[in-house]
Amino acid sequence: MTIYWIFFFCVSVLALRYSNANPPYLRLSGYRTHILDSASLFLIFIVGFRYQVGGDWSAYASLVEHFEGRPLSAIKTYEVGYAFFSWLGANLIGGVFLPNLICALIFVLGLRKFCLELPNPFLAMTVAVPYLVWVVAQGYTKQSAAIGCFLFASAAIQANQTKNYLLTTVLGVLFHKTSVILVPFGLLLQSRKFSKTNLIWFLVICVVLLLVFYLFFLENMWSLSRYYLTDRYKSAGAEVRLIMTGVSGLFFLMFARYFRVTLIQERFWKIFSLGAVVLACLVWVLPYSTILDRLGLYWFPVQIFVLGQLPYIFSTKKGDSRKLIIVFIVLLSSLIQWIWFFYGNSVDYWLPYRFYPWELLWQSTGG
After folding, report:
1. pLDDT confidence of residue 205
2. pTM greater than 0.70 (yes/no)
């Protein structure tokens, strides 16, 4: 557990250290950029080379064993992005660590890019670390890669970027099928005049997406729906997580005019925040908390986006309260991490943290 708290403490201190940054952005340069890059590289190694850490570790390891000695065509009934790297790991080099490292690379680089677009990147990372990094990136490997693709797509939203957004989110679908729900939001990146060219591109991407689903995912859809819906599978803590995201989304809907965003960004995040509010409401109505919880992970960036900018929506003319708000956000994030590691139902899958190169060295020395 120590490594989790050390990293969280470091990014929290950096968030407080640069609390007086002038909006709209904290321009990282020189050693500050190196610090963020070093933190990102550290996360890639920690997440990518974890050993028997995460609730789905055995499932991912079994998948790699399943592909051993099989032809490449065996991946077609799975999410082909993750399955391809699992096949490579099984038959060439790396084992389960190859897909883990690739997914960690996609996720962390996406998170880094997303954080850099916010006023205080270290504060944004502080918000992301307790759950999105430690739990999701180390537990839901395939979905974390899809989330990383979405973070890339939504990091620097500008007008008429529908094509880039769709291509990036479709890439995420190749790692986790549920990320298809993010694709339609690319239409929000259009300027007021919807061009025929962009419409054609959108239709082409939709056709390709449907073909991908038909060829690779159709066989598994029935078993997936039965697992999540018929059996009413429950997810502990889903209500709290979705409510936190929903409250963040509601805050943006109410106070969007105070955020330093462009018209296109405001349109995108308003509609996306509305989705977060809807999910928060549905979790109290529907009995299937796990599927809502898994879908809600794609809306977690709303928390990062809102809390990462919250201190900087206030004016400094009547006293600068940014540091106080940052302290509050850091304390809230630390509370989330504390509750997870000390009261989480499945935390035993994450503790103790084990680093594969160290485990390999320890075994080779007879320890």
Report:
1. 62
2. yes
